[in-house]
Amino acid sequence: MVEITRLPDATLITVRCSPAVLDKADLPAGLIFPRDANRFATVETRRILWAGPDDWMIVDERDAAPDLLAVLEEIFATHHVAVVDVSGNRVRLRVSGRGARELMNRACALDLEPPSFATGHCAATFVARTQALVMQVDDTPCYELLVRRSFASYLADWLVTAARGLEPLTGAQPFPG
């Protein structure tokens, strides 16, 4: 069974800077910026994704944007860094359950077979012709997708339709537009 779920909105913050700036910054324990390509780090309710050589996306389950922005701005005050709240830009979708990998293989061109893509891996790619950040959050496998808000309904509908051929679909709810 494949489940396609819209997750609650989260705080999303992009950080653009040189990795050398991160080496110099005095980062608190909860801010771990992965240096390995296409990986993410998780601390409590926060994930930080490597989105490019000088680009990270912070995903925090809590409504932490104002406090987190203030902390980041203070940490990077003397450095050339862009810190931007993009919380309203993306919707989070979860694809999970037996058949999730097969469904995702239908939707995107990434090699999702371990060890190429496993828990803790992420990548920016096209999912059903829609730009998305894809994370594998556990070994079930369960995937979390960050997709632009304007394409979220289309992508959710596409995934639901594609999942119908795998097994009986459960957990799918009408996606609010």
Task: Walk me through the structure.
By secondary structure, this protein is an alpha+beta fold. It folds into 2 domains: 11-85, Heterotetrameric sarcosine oxidase (Alpha-Beta Plaits), CATH 3.30.70; 89-163, 2-Layer Sandwich (Gyrase A, domain 2), CATH 3.30.1360.120. Helices cover 23% and strands 34% of the residues. The protein contains 4 helices and 10 strands, in the order E-E-H-E-E-E-H-E-E-H-E-E-E-H. A 5-stranded antiparallel β-sheet has the order 1-7-10-9-8, covered by helices on one side. Strands 3-4-5-2-6 form a 5-stranded antiparallel β-sheet, with helices on one face. The longest helix has 15 residues, at 149-163. It starts with a strand and ends in a 14-residue tail after the last helix.
Main sheet properties? 5 strands, antiparallel
Distance between the termini: 24 Å
Domain tally: 2
- Order of strands across the main sheet: 1-7-10-9-8
Element order: H for helix, E for strand? EEHEEEHEEHEEEH
Percent of residues in helices:
10-25%
Approximate shape: elongated
The radius of gyration computed from the alpha-carbon positions, rounded to a whole number of angstroms, is 17 Å
Q: What is the CATH H-level superfamily of the largest domain?
A: Heterotetrameric sarcosine oxidase
Q: How many strand units?
A: 10
- Taking pLDDT < 50 over at least 5 consecutive residues as the criterion, the unreliable ranges are none
The CATH class of the largest domain turns out to be Alpha Beta
Strand content: 25-35%
Q: Please state the second-level CATH architecture of the largest domain.
A: 2-Layer Sandwich
Here the CATH topology of the largest domain equals Alpha-Beta Plaits
- Quote the average pLDDT: 92
